[in-house]
Amino acid sequence: MHCVTLTKGVPDFREGQVSFDEDGHLERGDTPTVMNPNDEPALRAALQTKIRNGGTTSVMSMGPPGYGDVLREAMESVYADDLYLLSDREMAAADTWATAITVATGLKRLEPDLVFAGFKTADGETGHTGPQTAWCLDWPLVTHVVALDVDADEGVLRAKRLVEGDVDEIETVEAPLPAFVVADPEFDPSYRKAAHRLKHKDLREETRARAQNHEDHLTVWDHEDLNLDPDFIGLDGSPTIVEGVDPIPRAPAERDATMVDPSDEDAMGDVVEELTQYAGGD
Amino acid sequence: MTETDDYEHYEAVVVGAGPGGAAAAAVLAQQGVETLVLERGVDAGSKNVSGGLLFAEESAPYTLDDLFPDFREEATERPVTESYMHNVAGDQVHTIDLEDVHEAGVEYCDSVLRRKMDSWLADQVHELARETGGGLLTEVRANGLLRENGEIVGVTCDELDPIRADVVIAADGVNSELARDAGMMNWDEPDDYFQGVKAVVDMPEGAIEERFDVDDGEGASHLFAGDLFDGVRGGGFLYTNDDTLSIGTVFHLDSIADERAEPQQLLDGLLTHPLLAQWLGDDYEELEYSAKLVPDSKKVAHPSPHQGRLLLVGDAAGQMQAQGPIIKGMNHAVSAGALAAEAFVDSRTRGTSSAGDLYEQKLRSEGVMDDLRPARYRASRAVTESDAVSGFTDALVDSFVGRAGVSLLGGTVESLFNSQFLLGMIPDTKTSYVTIPQVLGEELGEPIEGGPSQVEPPDLADRIGDLTYNTDVGNPHIEVLDESYDASGTAVTACPVSAEDFGGGCYRSETVERDGTEERVVSLDTQPCVECGTCAVVADTDWEHPRGGKGVEYEQG
Which domain holds residue B487? Predict the structure, then answer.
């Protein structure tokens, strides 16, 4: 069983990390790049497959050469055996379509049995790249996966999908391998055998050592390696036109705030009085 | 690992990664037995509490440093080389040097903190067991026995599918769910148990050496008895760790229940006693509050701790020796665990006797059972613990004649307390815990030096607030079966994280109106539970441990 997990480096949007200029535009240079947090369910699903079904796991990403930390983090999460980075000036500024073409070409090289992707990136948030990549590969696409069981002998996967509606429903589907899986944030790996959990511990130790020298396990491919025409990838291959970027306006403050010093007993008494009327649980 | 009917099979499954489980697993793995260890805590030691002294006895068949190289360097705190007993009466104290009994037959005695010790042991055990195809897993709770045609064939777990095993070694503690599933231990009698509560207290650098007058790398043990615990039967202890103190109290659970005593208040009584001011200084910083139920081996050490493939080890088998002021548990668990493992290996190679029978024989031939259930105690108990006799001796010691006798004894008291023979006969009555120490303090005591204590222990709400919990929301592990105050009200006081007039604990009492009449009932919130098991004994509950990785997580232990 060979699994590939797709991941992306995104700005670290956490408080204290992210930096915006006066106009509310992201200051890319001052904001660190981290692994897309929404890829974690995909990594968990790939890890579960590696532990329960054996085989090797790779991580693939497309981006600038400085993605080392992102790939190392992904390697540690999924206990990956090797890393692939699709990196080239010609690939830069790609929209989801050009990205899908590029990534699908890289995946075909590896001939995996399963590809895992997160449900969206934390920056673009389109959720398109995974499904478009599956379309390029012409593989079955299973999205919103919350539980997964891979039957290597039968050459199929069985998955539970979270179908959101008025009432959330769980749909059980079966798909032939190779297949493309988009993991839901609710994905819950299941290790009901002691042997699985022991293997998990072993892999954690092994990977920790490997991730120290993750560059030894990294393969970088440019457009020539993948035999891709620059006209169909990167900015030139992107049909999306960005007309403009508007900063997200701050939510207007509709309520007045009164600052109260907690050590001022009289003022605190007023607060309590103010709150008492809501204390009935209404 | 091999699989049969979809269930995994390991040659040996050890439940619980305390010292007993670790010793068992180490011996099994060294003998090439495929061994799986299941620990319910997030880390070994995160569920475990002990007062804190680990004895290695010269006569013991196994000690932890035999089994684990570098154990003392890596996992223990200080070698405890001094031991004192303080008999307190009001503002007087009579101190006895317990050196002889502390050191009698003892190779060494180290103070330990369980999180550090047990997690270190677990790492070693995992490496050893992994070589055999097994290993150690945390956050897995074995919740019962797997049976086939009435025979025990393995364990069931919350987190894993059932597992088959040729031998199941239950080292799952005083509240062992496997021992209960087998019908071998119960929670019926409060007088089968002690309850201990402990505070781990931070010490500034160099303070231990200075305040206890010990060299770097040496430590002291101080025990306390007398009138500082409102007549509740038990005593206090203080042990020096590397840079903390373990200070606690241990009482007979029946006494706590009968007196409606609040364990955390009894502990505070010790912490704020003027006698302790010399060691605690002005800045009291409590790192952790903890509690544990302790089986009294004299009464409940299982004489035949096995059933089919199941072998009980340590607290799960009631193997906890409390003899007078000295409490020994971990060392017996280590011996028992290793002997259980040895028994399984022997039974496999010889094939004549069962592992359980061999284990029982080894416990006897190695003298473990004699320590746990001394014949002297059994012989004298019937007389000394009867109410009439204990009332009489209590009155006698307290009388003019008794006091005169105590005074005349003078220095001889010290040698009496240091007599192993006498300690083996000490009855568990108020006389030995309260009256004698108090009379000693009054008749022979010196005034306690120094002023009143500056120590202000945190209140119960803060103690609970400082503990780490991973609450299993919506899945409480204890259910009160009879909520009437008569049946379960004792839990309100006896539970170490509950108190009368305190709303933030596990148990609360309240008055409700039903059908026009007022009823006093108890209600339960398991969130602050420290999983000691007290309420299972003193109240009417359905009690289980939380699932793997859930519940309280001790940092010190």
Answer: 467-553
